[in-house]
Amino acid sequence: GPRVGVLALQGDFREHAHVLTKLGASVSLVRRPAELDAIEGLVIPGGESTVMDKLSRAYGLAEPLKAAITAGLPVYGTCAGLIMLADSVLDAIAGQQSLGGLDVVVRRNAFGSQNQSFETDLDVPALGDAPVHAVFIRGPVVESVGPSATALATISDGRVVAVEQGNLLGTSFHPEINGEYRFHKYFLAKVRAAATTA
Ligand code: GLN
To answer: Are 103 and 149 in contact (CB under 8 A)?
Structure first.
């Protein structure tokens, strides 16, 4: 299957690795720059974006990751991973940086604290008719979608919680933890298509 890395600095990378393996990908955990060379796609998990940002810079991964994203590497970010992919981050901590790539503004912790986590069913036309059951855990919201990006899903109040732009995909919620595989399948289709044209 396609060779997909999961950024394993922090967060729920094991859950993503499990889903991707079930879907037939050859999964590797990425912690060092050289490990980027062997992959055709990357998942950035949920967790804590401030920590992921610091560790990715400390391990010398941030710059190679930015270059890979610019070069067209397919990347799927969930929650903290979406924050890492956003061009602009509101309610960031002092000095927090993102990798960027997605032409969106996200706001961290937009739905409140950990104990205000919630689950809801989303309509995601790109994934078919059946609703997506979405688990939100201190997730970000997409406050604005720039001209290069496309909203894939909104919650009932109209706020955007899933976006894509070319080879990049981001969700405010965590399909990796509740058996919702369609986002990962959608992402693997991008990985296969990019690998074919490369
Ligand atoms: N609140 C976290 C952050 O800002 C994201 C939470 C998550 O990934 N579940 O990075």
So the answer is: yes
> How many domains, in total, are found in the chain?
1
Tell me the whole-structure pTM to 2 decimals. 0.97
Rounded Cα–Cα distance for residues 18 and 61 (Å): 23
Q: What is the CATH number of the domain that holds 13?
A: 3.40.50.880
Looking at residue 198, its pLDDT comes to 64
83 lines ligand 1 (CB under 6 A): yes
In this structure, the residue with its CA closest to atom 5 of ligand 1 is 80
Helix/strand/coil for 101: coil
List pLDDT tens digits, range 8-49. Answer: 999 999 999 999 999 999 999 999 999 999 999 999 999 999
Give me the domain span that covers residue 83: 3-197
Residues designated catalytic: 79, 174, 176
Output the pLDDT for position 29.
98
Distance 197 CA to ligand 1 centre (A): 33
Do 46 and 78 touch, CB atoms closer than 8 A?
yes
Pocket probe for ligand 1: among 12, 48, 91, 141, the residue whose CB has the most ligand atoms within 8 Å is: 48
